[in-house]
Amino acid sequence: DYFRALSLDPEFPSAIQNVLSTLHNWSGEHVGQKQFAEALKIVDIGLRLAPKDKRFLHNQQALWQTWALAELENNNRQKALDILTRAAKAMPKAGFEEMRAYAYIYPGEKLVQAQDWEAALELAATGLKTLPEVAQEELRSWRNNVFNRWTITTTEKSNFR
Questions:
Q1: Distance between CA atoms of residues 138 and 100, nearest Å
Q2: Whole-number Cα distances in Å, 104 to 33, 53, 79, 120, 121
Q3: Residue 98 CB: number of other CB atoms within 10 A?
Q4: Which of 62, 65, 83, 142 gives a 20 to 30 Å CA spacing to 89?
């Protein structure tokens, strides 16, 4: 109906806002159903209609992040890396290239929580061999923190009296 109204009057403010709101809500429904590719198509339509709309710009970035995180939660590191690579191309200034480090940090944190220090550090070493330099910096920082946490945990377990 809103598109019909726009066909009669392309400048009708209420119809414009309702079309954008409908697309915004529709993309959110798809995200809720984990239909990320479909949600991204809807956000892209919204951005073509309103390239400076802050809701769509924000949702585009949040959608890429949510999609990558969903893949990491399902232990699909390569899919998450592929999504973040696509996101970096779509939004070069949004930090997705650096975020690729989290494809190793996220599962690495689970290993740290289980105090499987060697496995966490091995995972970081794997990432450092494959990630671009900008993501390696973030991963190195995390890896160094793992060493510190391991040391603190080991020290706290020891009785030095």
A1: 9
A2: 26, 33, 13, 9, 10
A3: 18
A4: 142
